[in-house]
Each structure stands twice: as structure tokens, then as C-alpha cells.
Amino acid sequence: MKANMVAAINNALDLSMQENKDIVLLGEDIGKDGGVFRVTDGLQAKYGADRVMDTPLAESGILGTAIGMALGGMHPVPEVQFAGFMFLGFSQLVNHASRYRSRTRSIYPVPMVVRTPVSGGVKTLEHHSENPEAYYSHMGGLIVVEPSTPYDAKGLLIKALKMPDPVIFLEPTKLYRLFKEDIPDESYEVEIGKAKLVSEGSDLSIITYGTMVPVVKNVVEKKKVSADIIDLRTINPFDENAILVSAKKTGRVIIVHEASQNFGVGAEIAARIAEKAIFELKAPVMRVASFSFPYPFPGYEKYYIPNEVKVSQAIDKIMSV
Predict the structure, then answer these.
(1) Which residues face 270 on adjacent strands?
(2) What are phi and psi of 126, to 5 degrees?
(3) Is CATH 3.40.50.920 the right assignment for the domain spanning 196-319?
(4) Are the C-beta atoms of residues 139 and 228 closer than 8 Å to each other?
(5) Rg value, the chain, Cα
(6) How far apart are CA 202 and CA 142, in angstroms?
(7) C-alpha distances in Å from residue 74, one per residue of 5, 27, 65, 71, 112
(8) DSSP class of residue 109?
(9) Is-above-0.85 flag for pTM?
């Protein structure tokens, strides 16, 4: 079937709910209305209000309830309408969901998948365009996933729904309906923790994920530069081996992400390369990211988010070394 990311995620939830009766969905307006982006459209009608539950507007309550369900033997999938609202339930995730396996010496895992839209570029208001992947990746007990294509979104979500640990599943808002691609009708899995080599080249390596994947692809195609493009897909744990193999091969690395630069995912990747591949580098690792201040109002976001011009300039700079 040909599907955009919204349809792919809906299909993944549908197939997983058919297979596993313990999976339940909960969140604000996800039942009757199908969620603010209609990702869960039709699922309450198919599975009933006992498995697709509308909740009050209380993120801490949604996430806390989901943790309780998981500890009780269910596999909940809470949806938080926008990533910025997850901060209201931050304590539930970092103090409880991420720690229960360690706290109980693996007696009580917390199988749950927290879904939330992330990133900007669609002119939303404050708290609607957050990029929180670094926050949650800092917690060792949380798996953090961010797909960039419908195919990966479906496969990664199905895999996440079979894992015994809490997964933060970040869905880039701008990519929800940006394009369609062919995906299998049946259930399939995409390995969590395994990056995707989007294109292969010899001049440089560009490591990216989420909304920046199509941006990087467009720049590389226009400039006709020979580049490895690596889509992380999983932020925590990320595929260190794929990064190091590519970095050692090309000797030039650019890391591109929409989140703020300071203390971000790019900094961690750059540190790993410095520790394990620095003698193979021909130039310092470069980062292209958003400015390190709060996400601006809609009229300014085009100046804030990395774009093709900034990526192109970074390529020119690193290739001149």
C-alpha cells in the first residue's frame, strides 16, 4: 500500500492491537476524534473505548496511568499531543518509567510506548515544536526512536510494541503528510538501534535523523557530492558502529539535527568520533543545528531551523579543508 507517515503509524497500531490484546491506547482526543493529527483515526470504533481511551488534559496523569498499566501486565501506548506538553509528565518518565527495571533488578519491566509529535517547520505555537530527544536519551532506561519515513515509522513502531522497556517514539510533525511511499500491508519490524545508510559516498559522511533527512538528501543531490547519508532512526541507543565505519572511510563528518546545538545529540556523536576515530579524520567534525535558545514564534522559525543553505555551506567548508 502507498501511505504517508500518519497512515503508516495508524496501520502499525492496528496490526499490533490485533496481535496483542494487552495493547491499549490512551490520550487526549485520540478516541472519537482520532487525535489532533488523526493518527489514531478509526481505532476506537474498531476496538472499543476500553482499548482506545480518551483521557483528561493531564499529561502527568496520562503517563503515570500508563506506567501503572504496564506494571500491571498491559502494554499501554500513551499519546501526548505535542512534545512540549510531555514536560508536564517528565517526572513520571525519568523517575519511574526509566528506573523500574533497575529499581526492581529486572523483576518489573515497563513495556510502554509514548507517542508524541516533535519538531517544527509547520508554523505552530509555543510548546508545539519541541525537539526533546536529548533529554530522554540522557536517561539510560529510556529508548528513543525518531523515524523519517513512513516505512521506518511502521516497522519501528511494531518493533517498539514488542519490547519490554519504555520507548519514547518521536513523530516529526512536518513529515506526517509530507510524502507517501510504498509499505507492505502485512506486519514487519525495523530493528531498533540500527541506523540506515540512505546513500553511499566517499567524500564525507552526513549523520542526521528526523526532519533533517530529506533536507540533507536534497542538498547532496543538488550539489552532486559523494556522501554517506546516515539516518540514525534510533537516538538512544544510536548505531555507533555505523557512524565510526563511515567516519573512518570518508574522514569528514557533518552532523545535522533540528534540535538546539548545545549539549545535543550531535555533541555526543562528535565525542564518540573523537574518542574512537580521530586519527582517521581529515577535518574537524562539524555540526549544523538550531540556535541554542527557545523555539521562536512562527514568523522566525525559518531562520531558526537548519535549512538547505546552511547544510550546503557546511559541506563547502568541510570539503575545503
Answers:
(1) none
(2) -60, 145
(3) yes
(4) no
(5) 19
(6) 34
(7) 26, 16, 11, 7, 8
(8) -
(9) yes
Judged on CB neighbours under 10 Å (0-12, 13-18, 19+), 249 is middle
DSSP state, residue 149: S
The 3 state secondary structure assigned to 18-70 is HHCCCEEEEECCCCCCCCCCCCCCCHHHHHCCCCEEECCCCHHHHHHHHHHHH
Give the number of other Cβ atoms within 10 Å of residue 243's Cβ.
23
- What length does the chain have? 321
Every domain range in the chain assigned CATH 3.40.50.920: 196-319
End-to-end CA distance of the chain: 46
The CATH class for the domain spanning 2-182 reads alpha beta
CB 282 within 8 A of CB 252: yes
Residues 94 and 144: beta-carbon distance below 8 Å: no
Q: Which single residue is written with the C-alpha cell 528506573?
A: 99
- Burial class from Cβ neighbours inside 10 Å (0-12, 13-18, 19+) for residue 240 reads middle
> Is residue 168 within 8 Å of residue 138, measured between CB atoms?
no
Q: Tell me the average confidence (pLDDT) per consecutive run of 10 residues in the chain, 321 residues long.
A: 97 98 98 96 98 97 98 97 95 95 94 97 90 94 98 98 97 97 98 98 98 98 97 98 98 98 97 97 98 90 95 98 89
Any idea which residues carry the catalytic annotation? 128
Residue 74's DSSP bridge partners are: none
Q: Are 70 and 111 in contact (CB under 8 A)?
A: yes
Cell of 240: 555507533
